């Protein structure tokens, strides 16, 4: 399977790394494009094909992954239109706020388009990836799902929910990282060296997430097991809630979802 990633920045390169790690394909089967090739030198050394010519790079691809910023999309789609084969290729896009319809309007009506929303932990095969389509066949969706299943968990959702998925899962990486960083700063205040505090906070967060995923448990059920009566956990937790902990996370996710829906301007 030949994959071309158009726009090899943060998420494009994370995906490339994840796919090779998963052994789904070899680096030589992945073509990476970027405006200037200098940014891809290390990847070329690892065996990836690299190019600054989007039109040439999509020609032989079975799967195309569009991974440029929303404001760069129209220019790129104009560039590649004549090199796309709508009968043979599957077109995927990780671009926030750009619909399948937007892409087909710029390319071909009958092109199979799948929107995919991964996050940067795709580089270590730990992504939560949401995908949606309005026209791809079951067979094409199966191929896309199989690809992204190798680099984390996947869920098919309605396309209207893609901007919400962006906020919860893609932006979510930053939200949870900031939470871990904040916990580590608390850890320093109560006596640990910064490096130890960060490792301890990260492993604790991983354990909490795995309690939910591995036991199919609910957060409040697990919280009840930690909060001893009159104990220190409930004291700390309530202090955080009095300061708006849950509320801040909810408001942040709502704001991100709103902005995600406004990122693409058709010009
Ligand atoms: N960063 C993330 O965690 C996630 C990002 N996304 C989406 O992925 C897209 C890319 O985001 P990032 O990777 O963060 O941005 P980025 O700025 O790191 O990457 C975009 C890349 O596209 C390249 N590029 C720009 N114009 C180009 C052109 N004409 N031809 C070839 N390459 C070109 C840039 O040089 C850059 O390397 C955005 O639409 C974003 O909404 C989706 C999920 C997660
Ligand atoms: O911040 C952004 O707009 C992109 C989309 C999701 C993650 N990063």
Name the beta content range: 5-15%
Assign an overall shape: elongated
Tally of structural domains: 2
Largest sheet: 8 strands, mixed
Based on the coordinates given, report the CATH architecture of the largest domain: 3-Layer(aba) Sandwich
Which parts are unreliable, with pLDDT below 50 for 5 consecutive residues or more? none
Number of strands: 8
Encode the helix/strand succession as letters.
Answer: EHEHEHEHEHEEHEHHHHHH
Which strands sit side by side, in order, in the main sheet? 3-2-1-4-5-6-7-8
Can you say what the CATH homologous superfamily of the largest domain is?
A: NAD(P)-binding Rossmann-like Domain
- Roughly what is the average pLDDT, rounded to an integer? 97
Q: What is the CA–CA distance across the termini?
A: 35 Å
The ligands found in this model are: 1,4-dihydronicotinamide adenine dinucleotide, (2S)-3,4-dihydro-2H-pyrrole-2-carboxylic acid
What would the keywords be for this entry?
12 helices; elongated; NAD(P)-bd_dom_sf; binds (2S)-3,4-dihydro-2H-pyrrole-2-carboxylic acid; 50% helix
